[in-house]
Amino acid sequence: MQLPFSRDAFLGVFAAYNASWWPVALALWLATLLTFVFRLRERNTAHWISGLLAVQWAWSGVAYHAALFSQINPAAWLFAGLFVIQAGLLIWYGLVQRRLNFSSGRSTSQLFGYGLIAYGLLYPVIALVGDHSYPRAPTFGVPCPTVIVTAGFLMLARDSIPPLLIIVPVLWAAIGGSAAFLLDVRADVALPVAGFALAARTLSTRAALRT
Fold first, then answer.
1. Closest to 197 in 3D by CA, of 131, 101, 108
2. 117 vs 140: CA distance, rounded Å
3. Per-residue pLDDT tens for 72-106?
4. CA distance 112 to 197
5. Could you point out which of 110, 116, 143, 186 has its C-alpha 20 to 30 Å from the C-alpha of 174?
6. What mean pLDDT comes out for the span 172-179?
């Protein structure tokens, strides 16, 4: 598969992102960590999770795709639009309609969701393993860890997930997951796993509701 940019240019986007936006990346990481801890302690975090995820998707769409990635890949404008739409869907279903509630159970699906969130939080460290070095490495608030963390939280949902909520995450899991092989970003190997798990959980839950 021929990409419209080189690996060096791709890593240069992360360098520009980290140089300009590291305080925001750190703030998003800390907010996600606190939300994860509160969820583990079974606090009522439904609205906070929906709002935090919406902010992360909007941030990735505007600050990463539109402002930076578009400089080396024209398709980034399409990606930016999809990410902003996903942010809007999280606001609509999570904050307006309040259809996202999270269980305190410990089923296999939920434990896997916790694992994905933990992986997403560790993503910046995992990305630095190998020949990546800061600042030319993905950190936090960029698309791939955003999708992994989102998949993890959605797998904790108590009820059926609205199908529209998983379309963009699953799509990016396939697109971004290719970076693990084409661009040697090893941290992204979890993306296809996260996308598949989220799709399987959503489909199985909806099937169970029909029976």
1. 108
2. 12
3. 999 999 999 999 999 999 999 999 999 998 877 78
4. 9
5. 110
6. 92
Tell me the whole-structure pTM to 2 decimals: 0.95
Cα distance between the two ends of the chain: 42
Output the CA torsion sign for 32, 57, 122, 72: negative
Tracing tokens 């600042």 back to the chain, one arrives at 135
83-120 burial string, b = 16+ CB within 10 Å, else e? bbbbbebbbbbbeeeebbebeeeeeebbebbbbbbebb
Q: Residue 132: is its pLDDT beyond 90?
A: no
